[in-house]
Amino acid sequence: MHRFYLPSQQLHSEYVNLPEQLAHQVRNVLRMREGESFIIFDGEGMEYDAEITDIRRDGVTVRLGDPRSCSGEPRLRLTLFHSLLKKDRFEWALEKGTELGISHFVPLHTARVIADGASEIKRARWQRVVIEAAELAGRGILPPIDEIHTLLQAFARLSAFDLAIFAWEEARGYTLRDAVRDYRAVYGEAVPRVALFIGAEGGFTPEEAEAARAAGCKIVTLGERVMRAETASLAAAAALLYEWS
């Protein structure tokens, strides 16, 4: 069944007039008819069956069923601190990360970033990418995208996490599996709040890795092969989500 996002403030009455863009998609793209249904989710953990009651040239009205909790969220709360990337690679990481189940995105400006900053237009595009991925993947909670952080700003937030993973291509011997094993040796099967740090196209500098170590991060290698940054982020995220699935 099709799923669409609408913010909770638009879902306070039984009958809802769909926003213009969504109405166009329902009426003209999907060519749905009165009596057909789809799912609306509010990005905060609730979803509704929405039955089309009226289709007209200037809009679409639906009747909402009773709210229910979404079931598409992972147990692990994983925040991805991802360095900015060139072209559409950062958007790809947002899209696939949302599909995988990442809870929160924090863009980073690190030493080897060569991408531009985030204009309002670019941020709006990022948000749209996340919404569309959440609709597709059956997510119930929309992952927020924070303002761009420096590494020092990101490290200042680490008290909110139980485990911080810093993936560095020059790390040797200590793997993601080792970090998970060491956490479980202390905390057992408790599900942690995890921060995952991924560098830009050129990775992190030795100075950044040392600062991460001093801040309490686990410096890990993701294996013998060199991966693109966006590939590394998804490989690490998938492994962590699997460990606590």
UniProtKB/TrEMBL annotation:
Catalytic reaction annotation: uridine(1498) in 16S rRNA + S-adenosyl-L-methionine = N(3)-methyluridine(1498) in 16S rRNA + S-adenosyl-L-homocysteine + H(+)
Predominant localisation class: cytoplasm
Pfam families for this protein: Methyltrans_RNA (PF04452), PUA_4 (PF20260)
Domain Ribosomal RNA small subunit methyltransferase E PUA-like: 27-64
Any single GO CC term annotated in Swiss-Prot or TrEMBL for this entry: cytoplasm
InterPro entries linked to this entry: Alpha/beta_knot_MTases, PUA-like_sf, RsmE, RsmE_MTase_dom, RsmE_PUA-like, tRNA_m1G_MTases_N
GO molecular function: rRNA (uridine-N3-)-methyltransferase activity
Subcellular location per the Swiss-Prot or TrEMBL entry: Cytoplasm
Gene Ontology BP annotations: rRNA base methylation
Gene3D superfamilies cross-referenced by the UniProt entry: 3.40.1280.10
EC number(s) from the headed UniProt entry: 2.1.1.193
Domain of life: Bacteria
Membrane-traversing stretches: none
Keywords associated with the record: Cytoplasm, Methyltransferase, rRNA processing, S-adenosyl-L-methionine, Transferase
SUPFAM superfamilies from the UniProt entry: alpha/beta knot, PUA domain-like
Record domain Ribosomal RNA small subunit methyltransferase E methyltransferase: where: 75-240
Family to which the UniProt record says this protein belongs: Belongs to the RNA methyltransferase RsmE family.
General function of this protein: Specifically methylates the N3 position of the uracil ring of uridine 1498 (m3U1498) in 16S rRNA. Acts on the fully assembled 30S ribosomal subunit.
Name of the protein in question: Ribosomal RNA small subunit methyltransferase E
